Amino acid sequence: MALSDQIRARRLAQGLTLAELARRAAVSKGYLSQLEHGTDTPRPSADILYRIAFTLGASVGELLEKQLLRTGEELTAVPTGLREFAQQAHLRDDDIKMLAQIKYKGARPQFADDYRFIYESIRRTIELDQRDQDQGQNQDQDPEHADELDGEK
């Protein structure tokens, strides 16, 4: 099946309009239409293929019908709720990979809001830890505390 057929078939299977897929993948509707119809369009860039594939829950290899070795580098097994949150929040790939690994008693969160809560909790915890570390380093460099450290030596 050609790339144009793969994109169209996957889009329709998910009940997405051309406009909705274009919006979610951050690709112009006209360009996406050209891709789906296989008209005289230049070959899409890797970035555009990746965004379309990610939005459709597929890998670039699947869209191109290539058998790729699984390296864990391409995000294909991303739950729907996480995919929605990732697109809304413009998450980086490493954040998506981290969230995709989260399970509790063998089950994954299902909804975008669940992933948002988890992500924000982790982000705030890391920021607080970093702030505490920075404050500790500042106290070590504080001249008032330098005398105390010299007295210990």
Summarize the structure.
This protein is mainly α and 153 residues long.
Question: How would you sum up this structure, described in words?
Answer:
The protein is an all-alpha fold. The protein has two domains: 1-76, 434 Repressor (Amino-terminal Domain) (Orthogonal Bundle), CATH 1.10.260.40; 78-142, no CATH class. Helix content is 66%, strand content 0%. It contains nine helices and no strands. Helix 2 (18-25) packs across helix 4 (46-56). The protein is elongated. The model is unreliable at 67-73 (pLDDT under 50).
Characteristics of this structure?
mainly alpha, 66% helix, 153 residues, 9 helices, 434 Repressor (Amino-terminal Domain), elongated
Number of DSSP E strands? 0
> Strand pairing plus helix content: what structural class?
mainly alpha
User: CATH superfamily of the largest domain, called what?
Assistant: lambda repressor-like DNA-binding domains
CATH top level of the largest domain is: Mainly Alpha
Q: Specify the helix fraction band.
A: 55-70%
| Low-confidence runs | 67-73
Total individual domains:
2
What's the order of the H and E elements?
HHHHHHHHH
Mean pLDDT rating: 80
Looking at the overall shape, the CATH architecture of the largest domain is Orthogonal Bundle
Distance between the terminal alpha carbons, to the nearest Å?
A: 75 Å
- Main beta sheet strand tally, sense and closure: none
What's the CATH topology label of the largest domain?
434 Repressor (Amino-terminal Domain)
- The backbone outline, from C-alpha atoms, is elongated
Radius of gyration: 23 Å
Summed up, the helix count is 9
How much of the polypeptide forms β-strand, as a percent range? under 5%
